[in-house]
């Protein structure tokens, strides 16, 4: 899933929405909808979350809201974005996506395709879309064109989804925010295990990340939503952030400028390093060197 969903066309639709999707999104702004709760600030999450009360199959809006709030709480604890994020979540028959256009109250709009009580799918989809929001995806809307490094942002959001599945399951077992949450955590564990068994979700062996990325650079730029490639890149990144989970907060400094996106990937990473505060810069420099093959001493100018 991504800004836009499970197929290349669906993912792009978050940027260039087709007629049917555009009509559905417009309806969200013009037709009153029942919300599961009033906007409420999570104790840890700094997310004001609104969830439509209907359209989730056998799940209620309140149940969906509890699950999504768990995701927001876990990610905010690890990523520590700086300001309150208002998010309005609606069901969709299409692919999941985060929309550039906000609602009339200034909330980001997220569409999820998960249905019924398949909680793992809600966690996976919402973590990805919230990842786009807190890594400042709106930068691209300002310039009216996709980023040449959208593939990297998709990989980052895939990483966020994978980590969220593990961390939310741990929280549900430890704190049981509702009766039966510990049993529900097992569903997340099974879903994550299924994902991680896919062969492409492993860091490549026998070749460095920089060489692997150079060999596939044209393909990544031509189709930034090629899931197997995105998910391989996410696997490359995963051990970095599992070793130093406090560095997840560095991701919130991606795209944290209104300037046009640099055309070269190395310059894009350098910009990220320059925008990050001191406690993250050494980590981003090391990651920069890992991904583009520069010695760490020259990865920052």
Short description:
The chain is α/β, with parallel strands linked by helices.
Largest sheet: spatial strand order: 1-2-4-3
Largest sheet entry: 4 strands, mixed
Into which percent range does the helicity of residues fall?
40-55%
| Class from helix and strand fractions | alpha/beta
Please provide the count of β strands. Answer: 4
Order of helices and strands: HHEHEEEHHHHHHHH
Tally the helices: what do you get? 11
Unreliable segments of 5+ consecutive residues: 1-45
What is the percentage of strand-forming residues?
5-15%
Global geometry: globular
- Mean pLDDT score, rounded? 85
* Global Rg: 19 Å
In whole angstroms, the N-to-C terminal distance is: 35 Å
Helix and strand arrangement:
Elements lengths: L7 H5 L6 H12 L16 E5 L9 H19 L5 E7 L5 E3 L8 E5 L6 H16 L3 H6 L6 H26 L5 H16 L12 H14 L4 H17 L21 H11 L2 H15 L9
Parallel strand pairs: 1-2, 2-4
Antiparallel strand pairs: 3-4
Helix pairs in contact: 3-4, 3-6, 4-6, 4-7, 6-7, 6-9, 8-11, 10-11
Structural write-up:
The structure is a single chain. The protein has 301 residues and is α/β, with parallel strands linked by helices. Helix content is 52%, strand content 7%. β3 and β4 form a beta hairpin. The two termini are 35 Å apart.
